Amino acid sequence: MQQPTTDIIESLLEKPCWVIDFLPHQVPADQGSQFFKIEKLLLQSPHINLLYDKFAAILLQLYCYYDIHLCMNDDEVWTFNPEPEHLLNAVHSVLEQKRHLVILIEATSTLLTLSGDDTHITVYNPSDDILPLLDKLATAQGLWLWKP
Question: How far, in Å, CA of 127 to CA of 134, rounded?
Fold first, then answer.
């Protein structure tokens, strides 16, 4: 399997995106100050571990259906179909070390990103096939999939 190129990743980052989030839809602009206070509190509390456990469950379940390329952005080393433990450890590393995880599903040209200072997963260029699956996986974890 060929390594993803920077051009491919950058082009996907420009595509429409969806988010897997703890909120059911985007917070209105006039309520943003409350949201940022709550997000900051969540990121600093033990509850963030529960959210990232849910993210890990979604990504592991998604991995059952698709081959993936995984990269921690500061390493810039891509791993094709990593061991499940590696994927799980990568999600926890994102949170603990404030890193950035990128997952490419080449079969659907879908890119997922997770940053250690975020409370959501961003899904770029999701195909019509993958969206219903992501919605079911998010819902099963008590999360929502929505388009900003």
Answer: 10
